[in-house]
């Protein structure tokens, strides 16, 4: 779809095709007068997009620093052909760099968001239900990963990883049946979706994957992929000290239950199966990026030994 058409639909004054500022999906930065905006895809159909808009607006009113659709004279979000688009304000600030205070504040912000959630999905968000992961698809992805590693002369204990993933596949029904505390959350809580101001307070800029799910699944995704993609982030998962700092911030708002602690490691491995395996299999160019390869290697080490990555 023409980006120019999208921007004109939102009444922006443009005369040529805009260039995306994000390599993996169309994201346009638009200057209009003395203000800057971001135009991007959000959830389809429009009903889901409106629920996300309502969710983030509620968080904003409760004091959470998070982007919300801007009033611009036409419907926002809006469906254009088959795609739903939204206009957010452009937030000025600095990217995450892995400083201790940035990590602690990031934990605080996620804890704050979780603490404000309803317990029964009053927000009306889609519900996480990724418990039908197919063994054949996972094994095919593992074969791809093995091939990428071998092609670049990297060592990979594919047999051990395969056995771990098969064990998690077998536990899907058990995990699905657990009665875990659930929350409404953006569920894409990563460093590249945070902008920091001068007082090192983060602002969440991409809430469009919002979902209702057990909160430790959100924590698991954060542990695994917080440092994914962003060039200014460390090329590895949180080290033990960083994980402690993130938890310390998070626990300012949330008290973890015994059942969450008991099943934490299995949940992390399930999210690894759901979110990380496909990333490593489908993002071959990442294997040519030394920072990304470092992250991949640390992810494999993490799921192999989670001794120090607890919820205590």
From TrEMBL:
Report the residue ranges that make up the Aminoglycoside phosphotransferase domain in this protein.
26-228
Identify the domain of life: Bacteria
Query: Which Pfam family is an annotated match for this chain, by its short name?
Result: APH
Q: What is this protein called?
A: Aminoglycoside phosphotransferase domain-containing protein
- Which species is this record about? Cytobacillus solani
């Amino acid at each position: 779809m023409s980006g120019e058409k999208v921007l004109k639909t939102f009444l922006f004054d443009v005369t040529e095709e805009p260039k995306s500022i994000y390599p993996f999906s169309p994201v346009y930065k638009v200057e209009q007068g003395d203000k800057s905006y971001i135009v991007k895809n959000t959830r389809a159909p429009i009903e889901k997009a409106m629920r996300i808009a309502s969710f983030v607006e509620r968080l904003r009113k409760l004091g959470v620093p998070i982007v919300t659709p801007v009033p611009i004279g036409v419907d926002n979000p809006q469906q254009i052909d088959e795609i739903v688009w939204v206009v957010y304000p452009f937030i000025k600030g600095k990217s995450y760099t892995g400083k201790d205070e940035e990590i602690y504040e990031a934990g605080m912000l996620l804890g704050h968001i979780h603490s404000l959630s309803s317990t029964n999905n009053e927000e009306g968000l889609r519900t996480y239900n990724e418990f039908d992961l197919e063994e054949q698809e996972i094994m095919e992805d593992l074969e791809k990963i093995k091939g990428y590693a071998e092609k670049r002369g990297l060592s990979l204990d594919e047999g051990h990883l395969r056995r771990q993933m098969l064990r998690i596949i077998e536990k899907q029904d058990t995990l699905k049946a657990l009665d875990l505390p659930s929350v409404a959350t953006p569920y894409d809580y990563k460093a590249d979706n945070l902008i920091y101001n001068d007082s090192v307070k983060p602002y969440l800029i991409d809430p469009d994957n919002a979902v209702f799910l057990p909160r430790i699944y959100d924590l698991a995704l954060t542990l695994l992929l917080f440092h994914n993609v962003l060039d200014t982030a460390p090329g590895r998962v949180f080290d033990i000290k960083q994980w402690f700092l993130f938890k310390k911030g998070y626990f300012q708002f949330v008290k973890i239950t015994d059942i969450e602690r008991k099943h934490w490691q299995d949940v992390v491995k399930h999210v690894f199966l759901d979110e990380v395996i496909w990333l490593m299999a489908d993002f071959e160019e990442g294997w040519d990026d030394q920072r990304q390869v470092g992250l991949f290697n640390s992810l494999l080490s993490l799921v192999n030994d989670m001794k120090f990555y607890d919820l205590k």
